[in-house]
Every structure is written in C-alpha cells, then in structure tokens.
Amino acid sequence: MSQHLGAPCLPTVEKGDHVRRGQVVGDVDAFVSAPVHSPVEGEVSEIVEVLSISGTRVNAVRIAPEPDQDVREHERITADAEVDVVRLAGVVGLGGAAFPTSVKLIPPRDKPVGTVILNGCECEPYLTCDHRVMVEQPERVVAGGHAIRRIVGAQGLVIGVEDNKPEAAEALRPHLGSDVELLILPTRYPQGAEKQLIWAVLGKEVAHGELPAAAGALVHNVSTAVAVADALDKGKPLVERVVTVTGNVARPGNYLTLLGTPVSALIKAAGGIVGKPGRVIAGGPMTGVALADLDVPVVKGTSGVVVLEEGETAPAVMNDQPCIRCGRCSDACPMMLQPFAIGIYANRSDWDGSERYHALDCIECGCCSYVCPTRRPLVQLIRQAKHVLLERGSHL
Amino acid sequence: MTSAGSSPRLQVASSPHVAAKENVTHIMLWVVAALTPATIWAVWNMKMVAIVLLGSCIGSTLATEWIWNRIARRAQTLWDGSALVTGLLLALALPPRTPWWMAVIGGVVAIGLAKMLFGGLGWNLFNPALVGRAFLSISWMGVLADVRPFPGGWFNALSVPGVGDLDAITGATRLAIAAADRAADGAYGVDLAEYYRPLLLRNLEGSFGEISGALLLLGGFVLIAKGIIDWRIPAGYITTVGLLSWAFGSDPIFNVLAGGVLLGAFYMATDYVTSPMTRAGRLVFGCGCGLFNVVGRFFGPMPESTTFAILFMNGLVPLIDKGFAPRTFGWVSRRG
Questions:
Q1: Are strands A156-162 and A115-120 parallel, antiparallel or unpaired?
Q2: Would you say A128 and A246 are in contact if contact means Cβ atoms under 8 Å apart?
Q3: Touching check for A181 and chain B: CB below 8 Å?
Q4: Is B273 in Cβ contact with A366 (below 8 Å)?
Q5: Fewer CB atoms inside 10 A, N or C side of chain B?
Q6: Which burial class, exposed, middle or buried, applies to A136 when counting CB atoms under 10 A from its CB (0-12, 13-18, 19+)?
Q7: How far is B144 from chain A (nearest CA, A)?
Q8: Each residue's pLDDT tens digit, B102-147
C-alpha cells in the first residue's frame, strides 16, 4: 500500500473479494499519492502487515492468483483529463524514487516548464533496466515524452542518454522526429540524479531548495515515460515494471516483473544465487537497500536486484581511521559539498556544524564513501545529520 | 511474505554497498614507487653513503611510529605506509654528508614531534619529513648546508667527517654561486644554463633527492596520471618559481631545477594531510609555496628556502580551506 513517495494507500478491497487484473486495491485521498492496482486476477486472501523493501512494516493486500490467466489483459483506466489518467493508473517515477508522476505533471503556475528532459542515464551502475526499455520500446519512450510535453505545455523535449548505451541511442533515433533532441552525455554517476541531469542537459543549476521547475525543466525517467504513454493510449495501470536482476545470479538480465512478486521468486526466475551471497540489494549498489529477508515484494520503485558476493562489498563496519585530507570526497561530490567536514561534525553530533557545510543539500549518491581511501562512512554520517536536521525543522 | 527462514544469511549495511579498491597503503606505495627511480639512481651514484642515510631515516621513522603506538597503546599504523614515505622523503631531502645519527634524530623528530604528537596520520599540521629536515637544519646549520658531492664508494660510508670538521668546509652550492653572481651584477659571468644538464640528469651537489630532476619529474607525472596527486600544487608551485625568478632577473629554468624545488613541488607540498582539500585551494597553496620559496631564495639568509616555504604554507592551510571552500551546487544562482 506504500509503493511511492507520499501518503500510503488504504486497502479498498476486503478479504475474499475477487479482483480483476488492473483493479484498484488501494487508494487514498491525498495529493501526493498514487493508487495501487492488482497485477493479477484472483482472490484477496488476506490484508496483512508485511515487511517492505525499506525495512518498514506496511499494509499489504495479498492476492491468490487464479491459474492460467493472461496477464496482458487488464482493466482500462479512463478519465477526461490526461493528468487524471496518469494518476488513476498509479504511475510513479520508475527511476527509484517513486514520486507520483501526476504531481510532477502539474507544475507551479508561476514557473512554466520550458523543457521536458527524459532521463535515459540509468540511475546507478549495475542497472540496465532503462537501457533495455529504450532498446525494446523506443517508440513508447518518445510517445511518453510527447505526452508529458503536451500535458505541461513545454516547448522542448530532450532525451539524455549516456554514451555507454549506443544501442539505446540508435534504437531511439528513428523515432525522434524534428522536435525531439537526443543528447548523448558522457557516462558519469550520478548523472541520473535530477539536478545533475538538468545541469548536464541545460547547463542550469537548480537553486538550493527549489524544484526543477525553477530552472524551467521537468525530468522524467524513460521507463516512466513508457508508463505514461501506456496509461494514456491503452488505459493501462502500472502493475508491472522492468527489474534488472544481476550480480551473482545464474541468468542475469532484465525481467518484466509483476508488482508484488517476492524478490526471492524473482531471483529464482533468474536461475538463483550463484555462490555465497554477501548482500542482496534492492536498487543499485550505490543507494540501494541491503535486504535481510528476500521474501519482500517488488514495488514500483524497485529498479534492480543486485546480488553481491561476500568480499565484493564495501566493509560492513566502516573504518574509524581518521581522515587523511586527500580531498577525494570533495572532488567527487556532485553537489560540490565537503563531505569530510560534514562527516567530522556529524561524528561529534555537532549538527549546526554539519548544517553550515550544507548537509541538507546532499543527494546521498554515495560517491564520497565510495572513493574514501580510509573508508570513512561519509554518506552514512551525512544521512544521520540530515535526519537530525530535518527532524528538528531545519529547512531545505 | 511471512515465511522467514527461506532466505540465506545476508549481510545488511547502509549504502553504498561497493567501494573503490584504493586505500591509504596503495596511495603511499605509489608515492614510494614514484620516488624509486631517483632513489636507485642516487644509490648507484653515491653507493654506501646513500644506503646508510636511507636506512637511518626509514628505520628511525618506522621505529618511532611503532614505539609510539606501543607506548600509547594504539593500534599499529605502520602498514599504512605513511611512515615509510616520511622516512624516504627525509632521506631524499638530506645532503649525503649528513651523519647517520643526525638522520636518525631527524626521523624521530619527523614522526614523533610532527606527526604522532598531533594524533597521527591525518591530524598533523606540518609535513613531517620537512619538520625533521627543518629541525636538523636549524640545529646543525653547517652540516645541512654542506652539499659538496660525497666521494661515493661501497665501503667508505663510515668515514663521513664528524661535526667538528664541518665548520670549515661548507661548500658553495650552485644556488649560492648564482646568488653571489646576482649580487655582483653578473661580474662572475656565471652561465646558469650550463647547469641544466647536470641538474636534470646527474647532480651530486645538494640533497640525495636532487640527483636527477628528470627522474623526479617522471615520478611526479606518474603520480598525477594515476590521480594520486593534484597537478594544481606542482603546477602552481613551479610556475610561480619560474615567473618570479624571471621577474627578479634570474634564469627561471635554473631556479626550478635547483634547490629541491621539484622534490618539494611534487612530493612534499602535495602531502594530503598538510595541503588544502579543495581544487582552488590547492592552486593557491602551490603558488604560495613558490612565492615564499623565491622570496626566501632571493632575499632570505639562506638560498635553500624550499623547506621553510612549504612549512609556512602548511600553516596557512586551514585559512586556505576556509577561504576557498567550493560553492555548493545551487547556492549562487538564487542570489544571482
């Protein structure tokens, strides 16, 4: 019931109900939210609290699927306004943050969107789901882009693809037309982050505390664009997504996965884990969540399942060695922060100090911890500082 | 989804779940590797005396760190390689006539006073090797200023003259000759360009590390190419030395090659702990080192001013870090 950023849904069905594929099973009357649909036809076996990927307990509707059903059939979403269709279809950002897409499609009146940017940069290393979507459904990506541009009344439409995905660029090219720009960007993590992508595409910095609209831009993931296009053209609710399953599994690849599928079943479909697993990560290795229990369900924001072997991972207990002031974290930080300084303040619980060094601007990409030669837990300390600062009401 | 136990034992930790392989030891070993060609060339030319000096410096830095950690009941830190680098740099910064016991004192001061007393690697304000050298050059000024070539042989290392003999034999370095010539408005007719070749290829005057500017440059470029050091420090340093020397009417190339500027610019000033953390700051820091190096050389009491120029700039690093902090993404466009 909580597959997105925003208010969790409440179940709209009861135990024993028969649900059709695409039927709404959870919704809530809140602006920042997205309804949840049944990915299968079946019977509601229970409404229960389950462990979610992020480790919290959330309400869930468990559905026993009927055998031999055609999962390509689904209920059709209809509404007068296109934005409402997107909302009713439960579309959220598929890059990982799972922010309700319909909310982003209603930009503030005083800040018109000039350019819609489709994010084809892949949010993290190891993940290839967006790449696969671009290669297999380029016309749907472009159609979704057109739709988003139409809805927000923007002029420009740019698809940003990193230069390590030439296949995706070639697949997209014939579908572009004269009014869509394909921009090949150098491959850099975290270019899939919203503000970094706007910087790379438009050369504009989104000011501290502002939304991308302040720079006249709106960013949507390419997979989200496909979901928008499918909702508008086919009335299709978001009940499945492409998930990258990779690392130490027998058949790494991208799997079109029904939402709610247990991660363990997905790994099984990929041939199972090879060798001794160290960590299984939902999302990518830089920002994803290490799972303790593999029976958690795949949700809308699950872009990948990465199985890392023991020894392949960063140390679980980070070192307590002092900073040697090499400056690699500052050089790597995409927000141009000084992670070492925030880390030192956070370590001493000096939250004012970490705020002075702009801890709240951190996007938690993890680059600082990745590069640190003394393995200081930098992003972890910054996260802690952000948590404390937000809790005590410091404003972003 | 409640069927716990079907999952294998998994490790749970906060992201990121992967990390670069590079650690402090790798970095330090790269610095050692970059200095190896020059070190081998020095040993080849000066034989036993070089080995004794290297052994005294490295042995004393390693021993001091080990003993300090032992007494302070701290975890041993020798494996990080930083004491090895300090010992090597100290040896390369000393002239071959330095007695072995003096080198040992330098090593003890470098690690004990400049590093461990401040809290160990990461906490020291001043470059340990340079503090060791500065201590020796203040305590035994004559010895450190005696940079005449040592009659290199495999078996005569122990016949290094004692301190008592040294007052009389302080030799004139090329820098001193250049200074005298400059003071006399070129009356000696010294052509500094003649010194390029020996300074680059085989120079027996000066400290060990000045044996070959070309080998130091080679190692420095390797460190820059490997991303170990930031080019901004040596570039700022060397450019400033060259331009200022030229402005003061001296030969810029000679001034860059002589007096340990290359050793200082690529290997001493670039020490992480004692240099600024931001790119802009590193450029300013490099230029500052160059400025004080030239000022000391042309107007100070001793022409060999590299050590004190870098130490002085080390002291300014906290200020530079504050003054040249990076502008956080998104923090100017709002005002602008």
A1: parallel
A2: yes
A3: no
A4: no
A5: C
A6: middle
A7: 30
A8: 999 999 999 999 999 999 999 999 999 999 999 999 998 877 777 7
Contact criterion met (CB below 8 Å) for B267 and B31: yes
How crowded is the C-beta side of B133, counted as CA atoms within 13 Å? 30
Compare all CA atoms of chain B with the CA of A196 and give the residue at the minimum distance: B329
Please report which helix (H) or strand (E) contains residue A243, including its range. Answer: strand A240-247
**Burial annotation B311-330 (CB, 10 A radius, 16+ → b, else e):** bbbbebbeebbeebbbebbb
- The nearest CA of chain B is from the CA of A318 a distance in Å of 10
Task: Tell me the pLDDT band of B3, cut-offs 50, 70 and 90.
Answer: very low
Asked if B60 contacts B87 with a C-beta cutoff of 8 angstroms, the reply is yes
Q: What separation in angstroms does the CA of B255 have from each of A84, A274, B252, B294?
A: 74, 62, 5, 8
Q: How many whole angstroms separate alpha carbon A200 and alpha carbon A217? A: 12
Q: Domain range for residue B157?
A: 24-323
The pLDDT assigned to A74 comes to 82
A-proximal residues of B, 108-137, CB under 8 Å: 119-123
What's the total number of domains in chain B? 1
Inter-chain Cβ pairs, chain A and chain B, closer than 8 A: 182
| Residue B333: inside a domain | no
Min Cα–Cα distance to chain B from A336, Å: 5
The 10 Å Cβ neighbour count of residue A76 is: 12
- The ranges of chain A with pLDDT < 70 are 317-320, 394-396
Query: Is B176 domain-assigned?
Result: yes
Instruction: Pick A369's closest partner by Cβ from B16, B123, B330.
Output: B16
Walk across the sheet containing A277-282 and list its strands.
A253-258, A240-247, A304-309, A277-282, A289-290
Using an 8 Å Cβ cutoff, are B320 and B281 in contact? Answer: yes
The radius of gyration of chain B from alpha carbons, rounded to an integer in Å, stands at 22
Contact (CB<8Å) B1/A262? yes
Decide if B198 is inside a domain.
Answer: yes
What chain A holds in terms of domains, given with CATH numbers, is 10-65 (2.40.50.100), 82-234 (3.40.50.11540), 240-309 (3.10.20.600), 328-391 (no CATH)
Cis-peptide into A190, omega within 30 deg: yes
DSSP assignment, residue B81?
A: S
Q: In the predicted model, what is the mean pLDDT of chain B?
A: 86
A280 CA: distance to closest CA in chain B (Å)? 7
Between chains, do B4 and A331 touch, taking CB under 8 Å as contact? no
CB-nearest to A280 from B4, B10, B24 is B10
Q: Is the ipTM of this complex over 0.90?
A: no
pTM across the whole model: 0.87
CATH number of the structural domain spanning residue B268: 1.10.3430
Whether B81 and B29 have beta carbons less than 8 Å apart is answered as yes
Contact B10 A290 (CB under 8 A): yes
Q: Which of residues 260-279 of A touch B (CB under 8 A)?
A: 262, 264, 273, 277-279
User: Are B18 and A313 an interchain contact pair (Cβ–Cβ within 8 Å)?
Assistant: yes
Residue B283 lies in a domain: yes
Contacts of B74 in chain A (CB under 8 A): none
Could you tell me if B5 lies within 8 Å of chain A, comparing CB atoms?
no
Average pLDDT of B36-44? 94
Q: Which candidate from B7, B277, B327 shows the least CB-CB separation from A336?
A: B327
**What is the amino acid identity at position A32?**
V
Q: Is B330 on the interface with A (CB under 8 A)?
A: yes
